[in-house]
Amino acid sequence: MPRRPTRPPPLLADFDDDERDAVLTVNRAFYRAFNDRDYAAMENLWAPAGAMVCLHPGQPPLHERREILESWRGILGHPESPKVRCVGEWVIGRAGLAIVVCREILANGQLMATNSFVRSRDGWYMVGHHSGPVPSIELARSQGAAAATAPTRDRRKLH
Amino acid sequence: MPRRPTRPPPLLADFDDDERDAVLTVNRAFYRAFNDRDYAAMENLWAPAGAMVCLHPGQPPLHERREILESWRGILGHPESPKVRCVGEWVIGRAGLAIVVCREILANGQLMATNSFVRSRDGWYMVGHHSGPVPSIELARSQGAAAATAPTRDRRKLH
């Protein structure tokens, strides 16, 4: 594949531990808003404008901010909406864009989420959420998923 | 939520149309490798080292390069492995990190994928793949998903 080696790479700028912590703070606030049924907090988490995407498990993708927030209003207001515990956060980031992959623990199953964040002048905002079911792992109440033993992949299954 | 307004924002550097095209080229090469059952191409697409994650639908997350490539070797070598057509690519990027969300059209269903890429000195490499099933939309053979009509979200369903 052509890699255009003659072009100098852009500056792979600053994504330091402070930035990583700031992203994880917003990711945690996302799950807190979920568990507190706090729609205002959820609304403030999502970027005020620009490109975004939300993929609830098994649902059509949502790209409009209005649609995304409407979906969250429905989820947060639903009497059977689950509580979600987020564990095992994995972060990759560069200046202005970061991804957190984490396990979502529900009472009746587990999901993995890929959450995306962009930085604006006043901080990090969510621009992407994609979650889907995964096989459950057992973990103690205070234990992170990274420390738990994951099941072996079923190699008979296809992509 | 605290936004640390006193800290100056980092440089939101260069992610221009050329970079966007370069990321899309690697994303397309990913699906070409898939359809051509070209394991060597698949291996070259993934970052040679560093943090990465692969989430096949309904499967445990894979973080080790060796495990990720082993999973792809299994998929590409499987006699019933499907052909996948990628449509409706949606890109968000900053210097050094980019995300492509796209629809994967299979003969018997559709998935949405969140693919992540980092830039190294010689180009963009895959560091993340997360795909899961979504309701199918109808689209003509040459048509992008963005132009097709998506079904309405089922508001009875929870997150």
Topology, pairings included?
The structure is a homodimer of 159-residue chains.
Chain A lengths: L16 H19 L3 H7 L7 E3 L9 H13 L7 E10 L2 E10 L2 E12 L2 E12 L25
Parallel strand pairs in A: 1-5
Antiparallel strand pairs in A: 2-3, 3-4, 4-5
Helix pairs in contact in A: 1-2
Could you describe the 3D structure shown?
Two copies of one chain form a homodimer. Chain A is of the alpha+beta class and 159 residues long. The first copy, chain A, has one domain (10-144): Nuclear Transport Factor 2, Chain: A. Helices cover 25% and strands 30% of the residues of chain A. The first copy, chain A, has three helices and five strands. Chain A has helices at 17-35, 39-45, 65-77; strands at residues 53-55, 85-94, 97-106, 109-120, 123-134. A five-stranded mixed beta sheet of chain A has the order 1-5-4-3-2, covered by helices on one side. In chain A, helix 1 (17-35) runs antiparallel to helix 2. The two termini of chain A are 23 Å apart. Residues 7-12 and 144-157 of chain A have low confidence and may be disordered. The interface between A and B is large, with 81 and 81 residues.
CATH topology of chain A: Nuclear Transport Factor 2, Chain: A
Query: What is the largest interface, and how many residues per chain?
Result: A-B, 81 and 81 residues
**Total domain count of chain A:** 1
- Measured as a percent range, the helix fraction of chain A is 10-25%
